[in-house]
Amino acid sequence: MFKSKILGLGKYVPENVVTNDDLSKMMDTSDEWIQERTGIQERRHIKKGDGNSTAIMGLKAAKQAIERANINKDDIELIVFATLSPDYYFPGCGVQIQEGLGIKTCPALDVRNQCSGFVYGISVADQYIKTGMYKNVLVIGSENHSGGLDMTTRGRHVSVIFGDGAGAAVLSRSDDDSSGILSTHLHSQGEYIDELSLRGPSTEKWVPEIIAEDPQEDIPYYPKMNGQLVFKNAVVRFSEVIHEGLAHNQLKKEDIDMFIPHQANLRISQFIQSKLGLSDDKVYNNIQKYGNTTAASIPIALTEAWEKGKIKKGDLVVLAAFGSGFTWGSTIIRW
Ligand code: ACO
Questions:
Q1: Domains 3-174 and 180-334 share a fold
Q2: From 150's CA, which of 95, 243, 291, 294 has a CA 20 to 30 Å away?
Q3: What gap in Å lies between CA 165 and CA 72, rounded to an integer?
Q4: Among 37, 118, 229, which residue has the most ligand 1 atoms within 8 Å of its CB, making it the best to mutate?
Q5: Strand, helix or coil at 18?
Q6: Sign of dihedral through CA atoms 173, 174, 175, 180?
Q7: What is the pLDDT at residue 284?
Q8: Atom 31 (ligand 1): residue with closest C-alpha?
Q9: What residue ranges do the domains of the chain occupy?
Q10: Which is the catalytic residue, given 262, 265, 285, 286?
């Protein structure tokens, strides 16, 4: 059995900064409400005409990760792309990355696991490398949330939370037995499908049908979220799946050197941090600057933490996510 390790990391966020005060000009909200409930101060939104999309941002992050991995784009043998906001209904963004990188042909796999998308993507990449099928796998998480949010008071409980951006990682076969991905742990619970979802357009409800219905009460083409239920489940599942990963590797919470939670909400991250008894220097949060970027949030945060020198060789790094589905997962890495 081979081992995989993260060889290169990259990120990209659009230049356009949208502050809480900017949002309060579009809807009935306030900086105080948003910061108190979520910790978010600002986020990035694609600006019409700036040339960005989910795939384009993913491509920018991927190019940086490949360069830092010090490999050639043609060494990439599999692309795994995680998003809930693809450019096309079909095909997925993976093929846009293959084309954008100028790789002749290679498999491109699209993962649809929302906030857990990057952890699911890492797990897929890790399995392919472990079995010896591929040596280098590119995993991307990217989201263009601003293209599909209800930016009126009606959608404020959801729209203030989300931001745009992308992150990427190159996972490669490693000869070093003492470091790399130790394990990944994935879960889902479809019972809660409607508690955090975007129902249509879909093959069940296509656009003309949606428009024909009176959309005043429950608009199926904007995201819907039962915030309090999500919060309650998130804190339980985050904790469970981190302990599952630690136990699997005979490790304890005291062994964690850096915890990178999916940036769902600063209050959720702080709750988990206190349950794990971790000091501030062992947790990396950047939701204050970028909002919740769903599949992109972990790779953006991981890249930023690494760029700031907060992750060193030998560190035990824990990634964990929870989101729509519900889905959740963790990745335990010896750096
Ligand atoms: N600005 C001002 N007021 C608002 C806003 C807003 N943006 N949104 C809602 N309100 C109002 C509501 O209308 C309500 O008013 P009312 O009391 O007059 O009816 C009041 O604020 C309280 O609303 P709640 O929905 O009960 O607010 P709550 O305290 O639950 O906070 C929040 C909402 C922040 C979404 C919280 O439930 C939460 O953080 N949940 C977790 C969800 C999450 O993190 N989602 C991220 C995406 S999923 C993921 O990544 C895991």
A1: yes
A2: 95
A3: 24
A4: 37
A5: strand
A6: negative
A7: 98
A8: 37
A9: 3-174, 180-334
A10: 262
**292 is known as an active-site residue:** yes
Q: Which CATH architecture has domain 3-174?
A: 3-Layer(aba) Sandwich (3.40)
Segment 292-332, tens digit of pLDDT: 999 999 999 999 999 999 999 999 999 999 999 999 999 99
Query: Which position has the token pair 């062992």?
Result: 282
Class (C level, CATH) for 180-334 = alpha beta
Q: Which residue's C-alpha comes closest to atom 10 of ligand 1?
A: 157
Output the pLDDT for position 201. Answer: 74
Taking a C-beta distance cutoff of 8 angstroms, is the pair 241, 329 a contact? yes
Centre of ligand 1 to C-alpha 227, Å, is 6
Per-residue pLDDT at 219: 65
pLDDT in tens, 15-57: 999 999 999 999 999 999 999 999 999 999 999 999 999 999 9
pLDDT of res. 203: 77
Residue 156 CA to ligand 1 centre (angstroms): 8
Concatenate the DSSP letters of all residues of 164-203 into one string: -EEEEEEEEEES-TTSEEEEEEEEE-GGGGGGEE---SSS
The pTM score is 0.96
In the chain, pLDDT over 90 holds for what percent of residues? 90
